[in-house]
Amino acid sequence: MATTFFYNILFVTLLYLLSVSNGCPPSERAALLSFKAALREPNLGVFSSWKGTDCCHNWYGVSCDPNIHRVTSIDLRGRSEDPIFSKAHRTGYMTGSISPAVCRLTRLSSLTVAEWNGISGPIPPCIASLSALRILDLTGNKLTGDIPAEIGRLRPLAVLNLADNQISGVIPPSLTNLSSLMHMDLSNNKVSGTIPENFGRLRMLSRALLSQNNLIGPIPNSISQIYRLSDLDLSLNQLSGSIPASLGKMAVLGTLNLDGNKISGPIPPSLIISRISKLNLSRNAIEGYIPDAFGPRSYFTVMDLSYNKLRGGIPKTISSAAFIGLLDISHNHLCGPIPPGSPFYHLEASSFVYNDCLCGKPLKSC
Ligand SMILES: *[C@@H]1O[C@H](CO)[C@@H](O)[C@H](O)[C@H]1NC(C)=O
Ligand SMILES: *[C@@H]1O[C@H](CO)[C@@H](O)[C@H](O)[C@H]1NC(C)=O
């Protein structure tokens, strides 16, 4: 009697253990298989482990929450430290598209399908319904179409990396609703239109990389309200208007790349005594004088002001800068003597050529 009771308990316990360890729900497994079916990876066999019923165990790149047994992460990177790449002596290549089936993985918090070079088609708009998504990294593919209009619904999103694709359309107005966003990289796409005027609502942003797109219009003043922003790259667009002076007052902004735009107006003196240590304003239509505002707080590893319309002389205060590693003021309309002093000892003539009448070392004497 007691033995039967014992075996009953054991049986029930075993059943229970089987049901919980039985990992992934069939609906999530089906969603993953649809996702896989839309992709083709001919070289490495990335998907060869995607078989059997339990998608939570040993499916390459898939992770589940151990408590709720739901898929929380897809991490497929065509350039990674994983042995499958070093063994094959090649980086990833995949074709096909990103199936909207991923949107059925409603607990997904991280979706990385990056550096596969050949994945095309649009970003499924339904991605905007993945309310737990924190990381969206689709960099280095051939994705086309727009950034999903409703992307702003992804409240926990911290990383949005869509660099190196062929994404077009505008920056959706809802994007500035991403109040958790820390890292945004849209570089090297075909994004057009203006940068939203209320861009400064992205208060958690520390890197905003928008270079090599077709953005037009002004640099929004509100950007300077992003207290944590350390890296702002708007280079190689069609931006116009002048540089907001408030950018020079930002607490941690260290890199400011505005090169290759249509920016006019003067260089705000605030930029010269800011936290900025890498400043590239090359290839714009910036006019006026180089501000005579250098001081011991001016520390530049890079200051590239070449190919603009600067005139006047090189300001005397520049000798008081703490450090200027790489200075390029070539291709402007500057005139007068190059001041002697430590910031200039290591510079070559190429930093100063193609001006109206600069003279002195390292150019010919005045
Ligand atoms: C941003 O979020 C607010 C509050 O949820 C909402 O009312 C608004 O429509 C959103 N803006 C956009 C452009 O989606
Ligand atoms: C500054 O930008 C220009 C134009 O995009 C580029 O050619 C140059 O290499 C950059 N300068 C530095 C020092 O990186």
From TrEMBL:
Compartments reported by the entry: Membrane
Pfam families reported for this sequence: LRR_1, LRR_8, LRRNT_2
GO CC terms of this entry: membrane
Sequence intervals crossing the membrane: none
Protein name: DNA damage-repair/toleration protein
Keywords, ordered alphabetically: Glycoprotein, Leucine-rich repeat, Membrane, Repeat, Signal
Domain Leucine-rich repeat-containing N-terminal plant-type per the UniProt entry, residue ranges: 26-65
SUPFAM superfamilies reported for this sequence: L domain-like
Signal peptide: 1-23
